[in-house]
Hints:
about 65% helix, 4 helices, single chain
Amino acid sequence: xxxxxxxxxxxxxxxxxxxxxxxxxxxxxxxxxxxxxxxxxxxxxxxxxxxxxxxxxxxxxxxxxxxxxxxxxxxxxxxxxxxxxxxxxxxxxxxxxxxxxxxxxxxxxx
Length: 110
């Protein structure tokens, strides 16, 4: 009788040094080999779609844009030049709040 291999398929993956280190750390924490960890994650976890990643990148760009606006406002306040527009600050803070809500981040959570 010919015995079949338990795992007849080999999967190869490429990773940066940092990615490999992080994967190894997570695999050890789960008390799994790296191979088993990757297979378990791949079979049980939902992966972000291309659209999900695109939306996340757009949200991050928007947060950077709003942060830039807040920095400009802070700079003007520190120089004490020009006028202080409370409405502009309020709009910027609302924009930050909306983007963070869209990303599923809550104020004060880590």
